[in-house]
Each structure stands twice: as C-alpha cells, then as structure tokens.
Design a protein that fits this description.
Bound molecules: zinc ion
Strand order of the largest sheet: 4-1-3-2-5
Distance between the termini: 37 Å
C-alpha cells in the first residue's frame, strides 16, 4: 500500500536568519513525523522528505503559507512507507554545493520550460539537451541524445563547461533530477556567453509525473532510500551495464566490502556469484559484509538524535 509520499522541492529566495528558521522548520517536521534531508541557507530551501499523506499535506500547507516560498513547487510521489530512516535539517552556505556561490538565480537564470514544452522542443535540430548531473547519475539514466558531462561532482561544473564551447549558438536545454541544479547551471551558462538557455522546470521527476517520462532512457538516480526511480512509463529501457559481467542491468549495488563500497549496477546473477562484491579481491576482504540479495547496507542508527541542533526546550 502506497500510503506514504515523497516530497522533492527547492526554492531560491532570501532567508534572513537561516539558524532561526532551521529551528522552526525542524520542530515542524518532528511534529508531523517527517523524515528526510532539508538544507536551509540564506539563498533558499532544498529538501526531500517522506511522510504520511496527512503529514505531507500539512507540511506543504506550512511551507506554502510562507510568502518567501511563493515560487516553490512540490514534486509528489507515492511510496510504501518512509523513504528515509532519519531526519536532518541543516544550515549550509548553499542549498546545493556548487562552487557557484556568486550566482543568484532569483536575478537571472535560464528560461523555465514546463515538461510539455521541454518534450515539444527537445528533438529540434537547433536544440541540444544538456544533462548537468554527475557520472553516477547519468550512467543509470538520461534523456535520449542528451549531452552528458564527465564529472564526479556538480562542483566541477564551472570547470567542465569549457569543453562545451562548441554548443554556443544552439538552444541549450538543461535538466537535472528535480530542477535545482539547473537554476545555477543555466545562469552560469548565460554568464559564460551561451545566449539561448532553457531549463526543465521540476526536472526529470516532474517530467515523469506529467509526461510519463517519454524518451528518458534508464532510471532516475534519486537521493532517498529508493536509489533509483522508474520515471518512464511510455518507452522504458535499460542503459547501464553490470559492473562485473557487462550485461544490461539497472540494479544498483554497494560493494559488500565496506572499505570499497563502490556504488555500481550489478546484475542479480553476479550479485549472487560475487556475494555482493565488485571484485574477487573485495569478495575475500576480511571486513566483507554478508550479502542479503539487495546490495544495500543501511547506515547504523546508532547515536542518531532526531533533536540534534534543536535549541528550544
Ligand atoms: Zn553481471
Ligand atoms: Zn569492491
């Protein structure tokens, strides 16, 4: 029974006192029984949470009642139970670590395209679709014909953009998981002389909800307990290969050797044969964890305090 929901959302706005707002926001989440990760910065709010339908409804009402978050949109997905084990509400310098701290998407950013508009434009000759996510994300799923960037972390985006000079003059359509990375990425592209820049509003997740995910090949890497999510209900496919044997597989596994912990696709047969390890060496490692067929090793809840950083008594 999918009686829980996962909410994905962000908003670039001005938060004058992030520490005070963190406290208030954290208490609200505890009251509503939400779990997940929320980042608050002077530049805005970014979160993924899970909760009961009623808890999520009240949370959305609470956020939307605040005029600072007028532009915020929730991407809502149904889920069986919580998608997180813990709740973290943190204050950070940026809502996405980007090395683009100077960029303010509330002042200038690429033109937002709704999923239907993106779908209508993406295959045109004068258009290039640019995936602004990292290797581990686009290797399991990406839009058909998308240009991907070889980067381990979004922080490397400004450096990597130098390799995209040949795309100047085209209409560039950027996309990411939920739309947040595109806000700064598209603004930075404009700053670097790309003239006609657009971004998929709400990202792959909203495109999946509203357009059935058509032409999104593979699965969407997500930052909750699901690891990867099905977004394409129109023409789904698998594009990632088993790290061990090379057959098509989108089953994401953490290597059973905790020292390695490599996060790669691994087919079911190799998972059994290798006991969840990515190599013979890892299979024989003295600290190797027992393989239960999932390849997921939830972090210990030891020492987790839901009231961490809460000051009020
Ligand atoms: Zn395999
Ligand atoms: Zn390994």
């Amino acid at each position: 029974m999918k009686d829980y929901q996962i909410l994905l959302y962000y908003c670039y706005t001005h938060i004058a006192d992030p520490d005070a707002y963190r406290e208030e926001h954290h208490l609200k989440c505890l009251e509503l029984g939400l779990l997940g990760r929320i980042i608050i910065a002077s530049e805005g709010l970014n979160g993924t949470v899970s909760g009961t339908e009623e808890g999520c409804r009240q949370y959305m009402e609470y956020v939307k009642a605040d005029p600072r978050f007028e532009a915020l949109e929730f991407k809502i997905e149904a889920h069986e139970g919580h998608a997180f084990q813990k709740l973290y509400v943190r204050v950070k310098p940026e809502i996405v670590h980007s090395s683009l701290k100077h960029v303010d998407p509330t002042k200038r950013t690429g033109k937002h395209l709704e999923p239907a508009e993106f779908k209508a434009m993406k295959d045109r000759d004068d258009v290039v679709v640019l995936d602004v996510r990292s290797n581990y994300e686009h290797q399991v799923g990406r839009f058909k014909n998308a240009v991907t960037i070889d980067m381990e972390n979004f922080r490397d985006f400004p450096e990597k953009i130098k390799e995209l000079d040949h795309l100047k003059g085209k209409k560039v359509l950027t996309y990411c998981t939920g739309g947040i990375k595109c806000e700064k990425a598209s603004a930075f592209l404009i700053e670097q002389g790309f003239e006609d820049v657009y971004q998929l509003h709400g990202g792959i997740i909203k495109y999946g909800i509203e357009q059935g995910g058509e032409d999104f090949e593979g699965k969407c890497y997500v930052f909750d307990g699901r690891v990867i999510a099905d977004v394409n209900k129109v023409n789904p496919s698998i594009i990632s290969k088993c790290y061990v044997c090379g057959t098509l597989s989108d089953r994401m596994v953490n290597c059973a050797n905790p020292v390695c912990n490599r996060h790669e696709p691994m087919c079911e047969a190799c998972g059994d044969k290798m006991q969840g390890a990515c190599s013979e060496e890892c299979k024989c490692h003295p600290e190797k964890r027992p393989y239960d067929g999932t390849g997921a090793y939830p972090k210990e809840l030891n020492g987790y305090d839901p009231y961490l950083h809460v000051k009020r008594s």
